[in-house]
Design a protein that fits this description.
257 residues, alpha/beta, 2 domains, 11 helices, 9 strands
Length: 257
């Protein structure tokens, strides 16, 4: 069984060393030597190769040899504490936490301020906001542009409570097991929430996108679905083309983007 997986990996390296491939493409190539191979068996092999880190998933049914790191959104002690507080008080609420500081490693200039961002499902957001106001300073609920310009940008550290969209792509902090956004979500939010993330627009936005996409695995299906929900899919498509990112994926996913 392991030899079959190894042979499949060898074939991938020989035919798809410099580009992504779809399951159907690999299936057609592998059937030249394994004529009666069931498609379900190939999918199991791909699952095993992905689990072992040999290949990475770029979209549904689209893979490539692993060339990127897997991004891990690790929270600091302050955010971990806030996340635990929310979970204890609202155990059934869907939410995620992250800090804008995570973006600073990809920027040219370092902003003088940062936000701790708490995104909460609509039904629980008012309760979470009231709770955080009682226990923390500088807490804002879905701030308007005026509030951002007059208050947030004058505070070195603020807590922003935002509405979490249904089916927003989330992951789990690998250390504390707390909910965090995937980077696909963060990239889209930078495009959609331009007032909130004003310090990350222009050349900084392009640099963040370029650095993230070149370093980390970005699942184009996850990205596209969320971009459409936030109504910035066309804007994202134009930026991807301008920066020359994920060109091989655009060939396979041009109808999705």
């Amino acid at each position: 069984m392991r030899s079959d997986i190894s042979n499949t990996l060898t074939l991938i390296k020989s035919k798809f060393a410099e580009k992504s491939f779809m399951t159907r493409e690999l299936y057609e190539a592998i059937r030249q030597s394994e004529e009666n191979l069931p498609l379900s068996t190939l999918r199991w092999r791909l699952h095993s190769l992905k689990a072992s880190g040999e290949i990475e998933s770029l979209a549904r049914g689209t893979y490539a040899l692993t060339r990127h790191e897997k991004f891990e959104n690790k929270l600091g002690a302050k955010l971990c504490s806030i996340s635990k507080e929310i979970h204890e008080q609202f155990p059934y609420a869907r939410f995620c936490t992250w800090s804008s500081e995570i973006l600073n490693q990809f920027t040219i200039h370092q902003p003088s301020i940062s936000f701790n961002i708490i995104e909460v499902e609509k039904d629980a957001i008012e309760g979470v906001f009231s709770f955080l106001q009682e226990h923390h300073q500088n807490v804002f609920l879905n701030p308007t542009k005026k509030e951002i310009d007059h208050y947030l940008l004058n505070q070195q550290k603020s807590i922003i409570v935002k509405t979490l969209l249904q089916r927003a792509p989330l992951a789990t902090d690998s250390t504390e097991k707390t909910p965090v956004p995937k980077f696909e979500k963060i990239l889209v939010d930078l495009l959609a929430d331009t007032d909130l993330f004003s310090m990350y627009q222009g050349s900084e936005l392009k640099n963040i996108w370029r650095e993230v996409c070149n370093k980390y695995v970005i699942n184009i299906s996850t990205f596209n679905n969320y971009a459409k929900r936030r109504k910035v899919d066309e804007k994202a498509h134009l930026l991807i083309k301008e920066l020359g990112l994920l060109n091989d994926l655009l060939i396979h996913n041009e109808k999705q983007i």
